[in-house]
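Protein Entry — a single chain follows
Next Lines — sequence and tokenised fold
***
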Amino acid sequence: MKHKDHYVTVLVCAIVAIVLTSCSTAGNLQFFEPMPPMVAEKEEPVIEEIIPQQFTWGITAGDFSGEIGQRFTIEIPPGGQPHTIWGTAIYTDDSSIGTAAVHMGLITFAEGGTVTFEIREGIDNYVGSTRNGVTSQSYDSWYGSFVFIGPQGTAVIW
């Protein structure tokens, strides 16, 4: 039995030596550090404020002290008059929210309505257009923008 035990010990040592040799380069063992676990970046929640009071047709997104990505839902009263707006679908933050909402076809001057908008960073070029009886102006680079948010929670852009 001693020969078999000795034979098994030699065989195990030989296997260990082969494994260690195959894991080394020039006799030096190479150790690999484990990769850190992959963690998906957590998206920041969208902050939405619902403002219960009615606003005038001249109210602008710049009148709100919101941060980029913050959303507001406001009530625009019926019987509005057009105010100046710059852009199409993406408006400068000094554009009238109510007039821009009519331009996008979301509300009318006669009936007003509830709209949700999101504060965005400015862009390099705002393109004017005529839609729904409202003409918006073109403008170069501006520091702040806003877009309207539809019922699905995404920007209304067309």
Notes: Confidence is low (pLDDT under 50) at residues 34-43.
